[in-house]
Amino acid sequence: MKIEKTAFEGLLKIFPDLHRDKRGTFCEVWHAARYEDLWPELTFVQDNLSVSKKGTLRGLHFQKKHPQGKLITVVQGEIYDVAVDLRKESETFGRWFATTLSDRDFSQLYIPEGFAHGFLTLSDVARVWYRCTDFYYPEDEAAIVYNDTNLAIDWPDVGPLTVSEKDQLAQTFFAWRQSENF
After folding, report:
1. What is the pLDDT of residue 182?
2. Of 35, 61, 80, 146, which is the active-site residue?
3. How far apart are CA 132 and CA 60, in angstroms?
4. What is the DSSP letter of 104?
5. What 3-state DSSP class applies to 139?
6. Is 151 helix (H, G, I), strand (E, B) or coil?
7. CA–CA separation, 1 vs 18, rounded Å?
8. Active-site residue among 35, 80, 110, 130?
9. pTM for the whole thing?
10. In Å, what is the CA distance from 80 to each residue of 2, 73, 117, 131?
């Protein structure tokens, strides 16, 4: 597999080795021994599968007291995946990273703890599988609104968006900072 570092500490894009022939494509999307070299202390405790229609925007989600590292893989379709650095001590605090993930190359994005995460479905349907380093705690869930003008995330234009009411009413990055007493 090939690993691309980003300007964000710990945020990695991973390209698994693909094996293609007349039957189709095969790749290992998870191999504990290989990934242990990247993250010797990391344990994934929960796997999630999200199925979304084109134009669905999910996020920007995070957990306050139980932050989750996430390994994102698109097993069908294509998404525009975004991570916002919420780590106060980070040089990239308040900045966002975005990349396209698809089933064409099964590239993965590892988002370490301390990031808000969201994605926009670009294809007719996208199935997104992600592994998490901590369990989901509904009472600990938080979100930053996807269209926060201070973050100015450059979401692709796919036509009308489908966004949950909860995500539409999420707080701004500035409001989150204020609530965290920076």
Report:
1. 52
2. 61
3. 16
4. T
5. helix
6. coil
7. 9
8. 130
9. 0.92
10. 20, 12, 11, 18
